[in-house]
Design goal:
Order of helices and strands: HEEEEEEEHEEEEEHEHEHHHHHH
Number of helices: 10
Structural class: alpha+beta
C-alpha cells in the first residue's frame, strides 16, 4: 500500500498542473423521464456566460431540451439546434447542426455570451454555426434544468425530453473566444482544456455529477478516456481509506486477540501455579505412599514371621495335644487298672520330693508300678501338685462318686473352662465336698475322664 501511494504521489506531481477535477471519464445517460433540476448561484453569470458540453443525442422528441435556465427561455439549448436562447433572445440552427453532426455520434457544443458584445455565439465541433443578438441580462434565483425544459416538468411533458448522454458540462463566467472553443473541441472528449481554465469554470461537471437526479438518469463510464490523474488520486485516496478502515478493524481484532491472549496467559499462569501445587501434593503423596509401602512391607514381613511362628507354634501345640491325648489315654487306662485292683493306691508317695510338683515321666511310671499298676502309665505328662493329689484322694473315697452327673461337665459352660468359685456355687448337692476343690482346674475332656475313672 505504501508503494502504491508513492507511485500515485509521483504521478500527481507530474500532472497536477493539468489535472484538477474528476469528471473527465464520466457521462450521464438520460432517458425520456430523466432530468436534473436545481437552483444555482447565478451572481457571476448575470452579464456573461459560456455553456459548453459534449453530447450524444438519441432523442426522438420534437424539442429535445438539453439545458434550460430561468422562466421560459432565459437560457435554452436544444440538442438538435432547434432552439438556442440566451437572455431571452434566440435562434434556430437545426439545418446548420445537421450539416456537421451525425445523429448518435458524440459532438461538442458551446454557447458563449456577454452583454458587452451583445451577442450569443453558437459553436458545434469548434465551428461557429450562428449568432443570436442579445443585450439583456440574466436574472438570479431561478431553476436550472439539465435534460428537460423547466416549464414542462409539472405537469410533465415528454415533448421536451432529451434522450442520450451528456459529459463535461461546464458553465464559465466568461464569454469564451472562438479560439478557446476550438482548442477545447480539439482536445477531444477526453481533453484537459476545461481543467486548464479553473479561474472561470464556476459551475463544474464534477459537481453536477453529485446533484440529485429525477427519473431515469444514470452515470456511465467513458472507456475511451480512462481515468484522469485526479481520479487516480481519488482512487488512491479511496483505497487508502479502505486500507485504513481495514487496518483499524484489524487493530481492533488484534486488540481483542491481545486481550484474549493476556487472559489466556493469566489463566496459564494460574494453571501453572495450580499444577505446581498439584505436583508438590503428588510428590508428598508419592513419598507417603513410598513410606506406607515400606511400612506395609515391614508389616508383611512381620506377619510372615508371625505366621511362620504361629504355624510352628500350632505344630508344637498339635504335638503337645497329641502327647496330652496320649497321656490322658494312658492315665485313663491307669485309673481303670487302679479301679480294677480295688484302688489300693499309695497316695502318700506323691508327697515325696521325687514326685511332688514333678511331671510324671516314663521312668517315674515304671517306679510306681508296684503300687500304682494300672494307672501309672496314664499319669505320664501330669504335674503332681499338692492340690491335685488332695483332689484325687478326696474323690477316691467320696461316697457320692457314682451319683455325680459327670455329663454336665461336658457342656459348653464347663468344658475347656478354668473352674471358678462361681461355678462351684452353681453345682448341685451331688457335687458338695469336691466342687471347691475343682477351682483352678481347667475342665478338659481328659481331666473329666480321669476323674470319672478315679471315682469309678
Amino acid at each position: 500500500m505504501a508503494m502504491f501511494l508513492l507511485v500515485a504521489l509521483l504521478l500527481y506531481t507530474v500532472l497536477a498542473a493539468t489535472a484538477s477535477y474528476s469528471g473527465r471519464s464520466k457521462a450521464l445517460n438520460f432517458t425520456e423521464t430523466g432530468y436534473i433540476i436545481f437552483t444555482p448561484d447565478m451572481s457571476l453569470f448575470v452579464n456573461k456566460m459560456s455553456v459548453c458540453m459534449w453530447l450524444r443525442d438519441r432523442s426522438s422528441s420534437p424539442y429535445p431540451t438539453v439545458f434550460n435556465y430561468g422562466p421560459v427561455n432565459q437560457v435554452r439549448i436544444d440538442s438538435d439546434g432547434g432552439y438556442i436562447y440566451m437572455a431571452d433572445r434566440g435562434g434556430h440552427f437545426q439545418s446548420e447542426l445537421a450539416r456537421v453532426v451525425t445523429k448518435g455520434d458524440w459532438y461538442h457544443m458551446c454557447l458563449s455570451w456577454s452583454t458587452s458584445s451583445g451577442s450569443a455565439r453558437y459553436y458545434v465541433n469548434g465551428q461557429h454555426l450562428g449568432t443570436v443578438t442579445s443585450h439583456g441580462t440574466l436574472s438570479t434565483g431561478n431553476k436550472m434544468v439539465i435534460g428537460h425544459h423547466s416549464s414542462h416538468i409539472s405537469p410533465f411533458r415528454n415533448s421536451n425530453s432529451f434522450v442520450g448522454e451528456i459529459s463535461k458540462l461546464n458553465v464559465y463566467a466568461k464569454e469564451l473566444t472562438a479560439g478557446e472553443v476550438k482548442r477545447m473541441f480539439s482536445g477531444g472528449l477526453c481533453g484537459l482544456w476545461e481543467e486548464e481554465n479553473e479561474d472561470v469554470r464556476v459551475l463544474k461537471w464534477e459537481d453536477i455529477l453529485k446533484l440529485p437526479r429525477t427519473g431515469s438518469v444514470s452515470e456511465v463510464g467513458l472507456d475511451q478516456c480512462g481515468p484522469t490523474p485526479q481520479e487516480l488520486l481519488e482512487e488512491c485516496e479511496r483505497r487508502r481509506n479502505e486500507t485504513s478502515r481495514q487496518l483499524s478493524e484489524s487493530l481492533k481484532v488484534l486488540e481483542n486477540v491481545r486481550a484474549e491472549l493476556n487472559t489466556t496467559l493469566a489463566e496459564k499462569e494460574y494453571l501453572t501455579e495450580k499444577l505446581a501445587e498439584t505436583q508438590a501434593e503428588l510428590n508428598t503423596t508419592l513419598a507417603e505412599k513410598k513410606s506406607l509401602t515400606e511400612t506395609l512391607a515391614e508389616m508383611q514381613a512381620d506377619l510372615n514371621t508371625s505366621l511362620a511362628e504361629n504355624e510352628s507354634l500350632t505344630e508344637t501345640l498339635a504335638e503337645k495335644e497329641i502327647q496330652m491325648n496320649a497321656t490322658m489315654e494312658n492315665l485313663q487306662e491307669a485309673l481303670e487298672e487302679i479301679k480294677r485292683l480295688n484302688r489300693t493306691w499309695d497316695w502318700d508317695m506323691f508327697s515325696l520330693d521325687e514326685y511332688l510338683n514333678k511331671t510324671v515321666s516314663r521312668e517315674m511310671a515304671e517306679q510306681m508300678k508296684s503300687s500304682w499298676d494300672g494307672i501309672s502309665d496314664m499319669m505320664i505328662g501330669f504335674t503332681i501338685t499338692d492340690q491335685f493329689i488332695k483332689f484325687l484322694r478326696h474323690i477316691d473315697t467320696d461316697e457320692y462318686s457314682d451319683l455325680r452327673p459327670w455329663s454336665m461337665l461336658y457342656t459348653e459352660k464347663y468344658l475347656n473352662k478354668m473352674f471358678t468359685g462361681e461355678m462351684a456355687e452353681t453345682l448341685s448337692t451331688m457335687w458338695d465336698g469336691i466342687s471347691d476343690k475343682l477351682v483352678g482346674i481347667t475342665m478338659t475332656e481328659k481331666i473329666i475322664e480321669l476323674l470319672k475313672y478315679v471315682q469309678g
